[in-house]
Design brief:
Blueprint lengths: L1 H5 L16 E7 L3 H11 L9 E7 L4 H9 L6 E5 L5 H6 L7 E5 L7 H23 L5 E5 L2 H11 L10 E4 H14 L3 H5 L1
Parallel strand pairs: 1-2, 1-4, 2-3, 4-5, 5-6
Length: 196
């Protein structure tokens, strides 16, 4: 009983599906509150139609600001917050990651060491993929945000097996998008003004 009192309630919560038809995605990462808010607002925007899935957010430490934000959102009934480590199988089991339709990893764009941030996100992705392969023999889809273009290549080169040349995964690189827009502005001056 004393051990339970020392741990927070979010480290004891398990996500459970309401029915076999219900879907969920898992949201991980070290992004700031603004990143999570922007992602959730886009995910549950009314333009996307009826909300048919839940979001399970798992972070290493309890972020009270994020919990408060979740409670204020109009779609908070669809969001579950857990405290746990995505490198631990017991925590991955708590969020039913092997049953999720997708795992989203958001990077911290304000990180002091971009390379370290990207490597940590890649490590999380590999940990999740290994767990799902062992638990259910499936390849879960990972959508990951990275900061540097070279780490994107490292991820895909490490991921592909000789017998599997395709991947469900999607990686968005912040710097790559910036460089793309910069190159387009050389071809079409003023494109940045139109897009922003």
């Amino acid at each position: 009983l004393s051990a339970l009192n020392l741990s927070n309630k979010y480290s004891r919560i398990y996500y459970s599906k309401i029915s076999d038809k219900s879907k969920h995605l898992v949201l991980l990462g070290t992004s700031g509150i603004e990143g999570f808010e922007a992602f959730l607002n886009e995910l549950y925007h009314e333009d996307h139609g009826i909300i048919e899935y839940h979001t399970v957010i798992m972070q290493n430490d309890v972020n009270e600001s994020l919990v408060n934000l979740i409670n204020k959102l109009p779609y908070s009934d669809f969001i579950y917050y857990l405290s746990g480590n995505s490198l631990k199988n017991s925590d991955l089991e708590r969020c039913k990651i092997e049953k999720s339709i997708c795992v989203v990893l958001l990077a911290n764009k304000q990180a002091k060491n971009s390379k370290q941030e990207d490597f940590y996100n890649i490590l999380q992705a590999f940990s999740i993929k290994k767990y799902c392969k062992i638990k259910e023999n499936i390849d879960v889809r990972v959508c990951m945000q990275l900061l540097m273009p070279e780490t994107k290549e490292i991820f895909f080169q490490s991921l592909l097996n000789s017998d599997d040349l395709s991947s469900l995964d999607q990686v968005i690189c912040v710097e790559e998008i910036k460089f793309f827009l910069l190159s387009k502005s050389c071809i079409c001056p003023g494109i940045n003004t139109i897009l922003s």
